[in-house]
Amino acid sequence: MKPLNLTGRRALVTGGNRGIGAATVLALARAGASVTYTARSAGSLSSGPVGPGITGIVADATDRAATVSLLAQGFDIVVNNAGIITPIGRLDSVSIDDWDSNIQINLISAFHVTQQAIVHRPASGVTIVHLSSGAARSAMEGWSAYCAGKAGLAMLTRSVHLEFADHGVRVFGFAPGVVDTGMQGSIRASGINPVSKIPRENLAPVEVPAYGIAWLATSEADGFAGQEVDVRTPEFRAASGLESAP
Predict the structure, then answer these.
(1) Would you state the pLDDT for residue 244?
(2) What residue ranges do the domains of the chain occupy?
(3) pTM of the model
(4) Taking the domain 10-240, which CATH number applies?
(5) Among the options 143, 146, 211, 224, which is catalytic?
């Protein structure tokens, strides 16, 4: 991984208190950005990343008033990381309320954050990264809500690029691969599809996708704008400097 320079940039990471989100906060801060991240509760905030230039706040991504207030600050970089995998189960066994909650968090809140990031973007523009997934393209047993939400998010990425690429908005969908996170632990516990059978020792460390997200915030990534980018593809790994990463 090569050094990145995001000095002077202001970044927001939703759901940045753990997993890929926390690692992304640290990667952006190491590159020189000042980073604000959100957590859903004071308890989860207390275990989040700390360091120079890092600020954690309690804010639920589905709280629309809080989203408007937060994004009014005008961030240069916005990472839509907040998301859930549940409900995990076949269509005939999951509740509509759980399905609705997944879409609210994974898609609707991401839309609202994106909308407000665009409305309040600085004069120099904004980079928006949506945490995508291979599930946006391939159905997985037991993940109907997650797959549907991520597929919608992928189309949102394309729509934002179509409407705002010429207005200072760079947007990316970023699939982080199969990463060693708490979410992956829930997937393993379910035992419901092939992803749940992947041994933990075969999972990528969170630092790999975190670096990839930070790299997307640099001008070197302009050629990938408007696309669904997968951290595992040779093209991305070569361009970003991840060739030798696990």
Answers:
(1) 74
(2) 10-240
(3) 0.96
(4) 3.40.50.720
(5) 146
